[in-house]
Each structure stands twice: as structure tokens, then as C-alpha cells.
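pasting input
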Amino acid sequence: MTSIRVTETPLVTYVLRRADDALVLGHRLSEWCGKAPMMEEEMALANMGLDLIGQARALYTYAGEAEAAGHDEDALAYRRDERAYRNLLLVEQPNGDFAVTMVRQLLYAAYADPYWRAMMSSRDATLAAIAAKAEKETAYHLRHSAEWVVRLGDGTPESHERTARALMTLWPYTGELFETDAVDDAMIEAGIAVDPASLRDTWRATVADVLGRATLTMPADGYMQKGGRSGRHSEHLGHLLTELQYMQRTIPGATW
Amino acid sequence: MYTQGLASGVDTNERQLEDAALLQRFQERIDAEERIEPNDWMPEAYRRTLVRQISQHAHSEIIGMQPEGNWITRAPSLRRKAALLAKVQDECGHGLYLYAAAETLGVAREEMVDQLLAGKAKYSSIFNYPTLTWADIGAIGWLVDGAAIMNQIPLCRCSYGPYARAMIRVCKEESFHQRQGYEIMLTLCRGTAEQKEMAQDALNRWWWPCLMMFGPPDSASQHTDTSTRWKIKRFTNDELRRKFVDATVPQAHFLGLTVPDPELRFDEATGHWVHGAIDWDEFKQVVAGNGPCNTQRLERRRRTEQDGAWVRAAARAFAEKEKSHRNAAAAA
């Protein structure tokens, strides 16, 4: 099926970015299904994946309403190409081993948790309502991933090494969490969005605390990768979307 | 059913050794529909049968995550994706509390999992068939979960308390899954020609393996007698299969699908649907390990165990460190 073209007002773009973050990360977590290191963790990974897919659905629906062009959650998720996806590069990074997945979750949740908490006072009532639910969920994601990073970092020499490597691999994607552009500025100005710069200290403190308990060293901020917000992704996203969008592209226009 | 690989009945010598009075008292309790609880006296063969049955049921739930998990990343809508992920998560949950129910009989989860990985334990033959299209997810919910419910509802009255109680919760979730699967089929059948064809193809492939889920015909089943006397099993394989066929054929007709059995007919005299001959050779082959996905399913489970070994080692090491810190703090 041909892809849709979204008319991106600042609000539409802003909401789509959050929706794409949630869907892509939720999809990544769903890839773990049946492969988790223990059954209890199957349950936890599925829980987090379900929370994120639920957040994505609410956000896509709202983006569609804001665009008012008749695009529902599925049109926005299944019929945009990788260049139209607006998620952070961090969330599209492959699952790797369990350490990569948990470090990725920690780095994202340490941001998303205070982000959604702050968004509860957004002037946009819909976003504030979505935030109220998402905040509770991300608080759990943060706690769960932090516990694992501590366990893995301070577990065996092997788990320590794997976790340290995961941290080095993912660190260059953390700068993008705090990037802003004209879309953000407009939304911050309107009292709809929080300024990500205001979350940076909280994020650093959270991550530093977890890494300290995990006997891991916080990497130095080197060159940071970015581009996800404007649709310049890593090569991984295209494969993820190929799989995600397979059915909708195979039998166009069907109801599922 | 999920425990169709059960092989043996009671060891005669063993039974003779057990106190006849205890045995009689045990049977009286069963006959009076009392629940047997973990600390109650029970014949060794009862314990062994239950451990095998419950652990096979648990293994089926865990292996059963694979064919459905195969479509989570490709589910055709966000609603379907979330529902499928939640469903597969439920299966894992069933596995967890079934292992816990088996543990009340004195066997550790690790031991049961080891038996599965070593290829020594059985799980339901149905999960050795591949899921080739999205319609298979509908067909599994409708037919496989439908068949499972037929078998599991009577298990809610099983004489062994922990198993019966686990089954009550499992059944609630399974009937939700069954409705969800049927709703997927209904959507496909009301959809495009391609979607309906997909639904028919799925029914064609899953129908016969689902009838096999109930296990060998009563004429060939070795262990029904003891299990029935102990009220672990309340209906025979053929009775359950007939219930399933009677319930399912009209559902297929409502969908506008054709049951892939040219001999299928409604018997006015008995009021039951009568199906054609089941290919029991195929069933034996699948149970013996020669189904389309047997190797792949076990291989995947083993690889998952292997890949997760370092994580479990880390968790154990960390727990040990925590414990010694606590002890040191307490000593100081």
C-alpha cells in the first residue's frame, strides 16, 4: 500500500515523535517474547512492551485527531516509511543481549519517567491525561531496568563486562534525548511541552546513581548521534518497519 | 490434550507395598469429591501421574508461546499486536503457575525444565505445527484454545486441589483467548477474498491436528481407567473430542468456512456431528518427535536457556553478594 503523507504541524510532529518512541521501543521489547532469560522476565518484558504499545496507540490517535486528515493509529503506525518516522535513535537500536536491552531501557526510562511526570501539567489536556498514565508505567520501567543494570553490573565478571560494553554502545545515542528544534520550541512556548533541558540533571543523577550501584563507570559525553527526530535513522529501523508493517502492506486496505 | 504423552498406569508392585487402609481411605475421599492437598497422603502413582500431567501441561504452555510469538512482530494492527503479546504473556503465566502447582508434589521447576530440554518430557503435539499466516493466530485461538478449554473445564474439578485451582484461572483466560481467536477469524471471513482464503487455509491445516489434541481413541488409550478412578480425568478422549466437534462445526458454518472433512455429517439419531477417520499415524509421528517443528521448538527453548545462562548466573551472584553484605552488617 502506498504510504500516507502526514501534514506535520508542530503539534502533530511533537506527538508523533513520542508515539514513534513508544511504538519502536515496545516493538523491540516484543521481539524478546519467548527468548527471555527466565520466565519471570518474559512476563516483565511483555508488561513493559504492552505499556509502550498502549502509550503509542493513545499518542497516534491523538496525532491523527490533531492532523484531522482521517489518519487513525494504524495508518500512522503502518503506513509511514522510515524517513517519516520520528523516534529517537536510541529506541530503535537492536536488542542485542539482555544487557543491551536493559541498559537501553534504563537510559530511556530515566528520561521518560520525569518527562511524563512533567507533562502531567501540560496545557494540552489530552497529553496531560496520557502523561498521567504513562508516568506510572515508566516509573515501573525505570525501577525494573535499574534493578537489572545493578544486578548485571555487580553480578559476575561476564555480566559486568557485557553491561559495560552495552553502556559504551548506547551512550552516543543519549544526547538526542535533550535535543530541541523549532517544533519543540513552539510547543514549549505554548506551554504544551516541557523543555528537555530541564530534565537533564534529573536524568544524569538517576543514571549516575544506578551505574554507581552497578559498579559501572558513566561514559564521557563524546560525539553524539542524532537525526531520528527528523527521520534520519540508523539502518536498523527499516528492518523493524518491514516486519511491523508487513501485513498492512501485503493486503492493502483490509480490516484486521 | 496438553498431556497426551502420558505413558503408563500404575506399577503393581509399588501399590502392593502401600498401606491398603490408607489407599482405601484415599479412594473414599476421592469418591466423596474431597480435594487432595499437598500434605495429604497419596499413592505414589497418583503423585507421579499428576507430576507428569501438570508438568506436561506447563511445558505445553511454554512451548506454545513459540508458534504464536512468531506473529507478534507482524501482527496487522496495533490492537492485534497488543492482544497477541498479552495472550502469549498469559501462556507464560499459565506455565509459571502450573510449574508451581507441580512443585507442590515435590519436584522442582528446574528439574521439570531439564526434562523438557533433554527431550524426555512431552508437550502437546499441536505446538509442533507451524504458524504460516496471520489467520493461524485466529485459528489457534479459536480451535486450539477451544480444544484446550474442553479438556480443562473438567480439570477445574480435578481431585488434586492445587491443579484444580490453577485450572480455574487458566480456563477463564483461555476462554477469553478463544473468543479473541474466533473474532480474528470472523474479521477475516468478513474481509477481502484474500483474507477469507487465508482463514479457510488456516482451518484446513489446523482442523485435524486439533482433533488429535484429545489423544488416542478410547479403544487405544492405556491410562484413562486409573485417572478416571482418581478423578484426575472425568471424560474420555473420545467424549471430549465429540464435545469439541459438536461445539466447533456450527461455529465454522457461521464463519462461512468449510470443515476439511468430506465425511463430516450430522447424525440426527444421536444429535452429534460425526467426523471422518483421524490419521493416527501422523499423530504418532508428531508425538514421537517427527512433526514439522519438533526439532525447531526444542532447539529454540534450549538456545533460550543457554543465552540466558549468564543472566541467571549474574542474578545469583548478585543475590549472594547482597546476602553476605546483609550478614556482615548484622554481625557488625
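fyi Chain A has one domain: 10-250.
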